[in-house]
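[audit] Reproducing an earlier prediction to check determinism. Same input, same settings, fresh worker. If the tokens differ from the archived copy the diff job will pick it up downstream; this log only records the rerun itself.
[audit] input (296 residues):
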Amino acid sequence: MYKSKDTLMHDLIFKETFADKDNRRQLEKLLELILEYPKGYLKNKLEVHYESPLKKDNIHQKNVRGDIVVEFGDTTINIEAYTYFNMDSLDKSLYYVMRIQANKLNIGDGYHKLGKTIQINFVEKSSLDLKDELITNFYLTSEKDLDTKILTDKFCVKIVQIDKARKLGYTNNELERWLKFIAAESGNERASIAKGDGLLVELNKWIHKYVADDKMQEELNKWDLEIAEDKGFEQGIKQGIEQGIEQGIEQGIEQGIEQRNIEIVKAMLESNVPIKDIAKYTGLSIEKINSLKENK
């Protein structure tokens, strides 16, 4: 049976892990490190909101949130994980921030009650030019002077490049160690990184138990396939419509459907779904799938 990757950068495993109340101290610690708060500053202060996507009928049900929202004092933090991060991802990120900010006030409230909103994106394969920085902060700035920032006490988007942390060697830096733990691609790798850190050791045990559960693996498999199909559908239709402008709508839709199947296969291959399972779910021949694998 195909098994989902045992890594925290699996979007669903990441959010199910850090949103779970059993891992609250680990979430507190992670945020203390990223936000540069003193040790223990967030202990017992976090109010966490999360609606598991596993409770959705399907991933297209947008009225159910799949992100982690954390509140403490007058600060709200929205947390997301992305295997790929591009301009569409950034648009989604900004949408979340604006929605949170807009919902903070009731009619008649003063604007001083807005507090601070922070968006934290843990990302891999970013198409943005962020160099090798582990964490990049984005604020509102002047187009003429990028050093002039406004509302820094109200708004910030943080992009954490997990794939950059994966390349780090041995480190005594606590933040780098936690990011390497998140970047680890197997339970054994996480266990090696966690040695000597009680919170990480406990967290790794929780993750191992979570991904080893047969029922949960079934849910994760279903999620991976839906994500692959959704990605393939969007890419296929987009390319089909672009071609259809010149070649006719009907032909464009047909090409879109074909391209959708190709993108679904590529997404499944990226998720290490066995070729025989891909053939079963898509109807494509094993020969065709192997050809796409060689040329992806």
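[audit] rerun output stored. Observation attached for the diff report: Residues 279 and 286 are 6 Å apart (CA to CA).
[audit] end
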